[in-house]
Amino acid sequence: MAEQLKDNEIRVLAVRQPWASLIVEGLKTIEVRSRPTNIRERVAIYATKDEKWLHNNLWYRVELASKLQGDPRYDPSEKLEYGKIIGSVEIVDCIKMSFINFHAAYNQHFSPYRFADDHGWELDNPIKFETPIPYKPPKGAVVWSKTVLPEGC
Q: Percentage of residues in the chain with pLDDT exceeding 70?
């Protein structure tokens, strides 16, 4: 069961780039994770500081650009933010990802890897923050943390 939040708190989900940006732009509507979630609420999206992963995976950037070419929400020249909360999204459902639906839903999750026990966290109603919020997760936080966002976010 998900931990209760205090007033004004929001859960923060850590996501690597470019997926974090794809989520807040509304292009990525399924987040693939190895564990299911019972959370059904709006969560903040934190773009982790893992810049090396994307830099070292040029093949994946090319693949992504080819899949999203022509979509006005995707700008491959846009500078990706790292170490900041860049927006929020609602988690509305969680489904077990079979081999078949993982591959059929590729254009909804863009995940290059499939694991034996994948779950698809279904996302809706993304909001991209005009000004990303610098954020440092608490020590030991890997996937989830909590924060209070500035007024108006």
A: 92
